[in-house]
Design brief:
Arc Repressor Mutant, subunit A, 2 domains, two-stranded antiparallel ribbon, 6 helices, 2 strands, coiled coil, WH_DNA-bd_sf
Length: 180
């Protein structure tokens, strides 16, 4: 199914829960700047028109790049001193198939799940080291009243319950956190 206009495409993606309301507003604000010379508003201008923060605009644009909704061309300009500096971005709005956007969103959700698994493993590794150091250290700085820590198995069961409760929510979160 081809979408006739960018606005109706945004609406369809929002209804299919591939875009949030805020992302819809940001992309709609971006589309409103389209003119004869192209589309090149600053992040601040888009944020002001959409009524959100610059970081929300940047995050939304990165998602739109991944979904194929928007293409960016970084332009260079010569400064007064003759140096070449970065200019404004030139944006191109693309029309994509809804099924293509859903597939790309599924890939992003899988990346998010993998990232969450890595973060969970890092947390458990750090927690088990910390727990064993404080539990068996008789010279611990923690007062005896505060040494009633949960066992690692209790934390593992809490995390598995969290995983079960938030499995559906993870697939709807399409912006992966900064994972290293």
């Amino acid at each position: 199914m081809k979408v006739s206009t960018f606005s109706s495409q945004l609406w369809n993606l929002t209804q299919a829960k591939q875009l949030t309301g805020k992302e819809h507003l940001v992309l709609q604000a971006l589309a409103s700047f389209e003119g004869d010379k192209g589309l090149f508003p600053s992040h601040t201008t888009i944020a002001h028109k959409a009524g959100c923060s610059v970081s929300t605009v940047i995050r939304t644009l990165h998602k739109a790049y991944e979904l194929g909704l928007v293409e960016r061309t970084v332009r260079r300009a010569a400064s007064r001193s003759g140096r070449i500096v970065r200019g404004t971005n030139l944006y191109t709005l693309n029309k994509i198939d809804l099924s293509q956007a859903i597939e790309l969103a599924k890939e992003r959700a899988q990346k998010l799940r993998e990232c969450l698994e890595r973060k969970k493993a890092q947390f458990l590794n750090r927690f088990s080291k910390w727990h064993s150091a404080t539990e068996y250290n008789s010279k611990s700085l923690i007062s005896p009243k505060r040494q009633h820590h949960l066992a690692v198995s209790d934390y593992l069961s809490m995390i598995s319950e969290w995983d079960k409760a938030h499995k559906d929510a993870q697939t709807s979160l399409l912006v992966p956190p900064n994972c290293s």
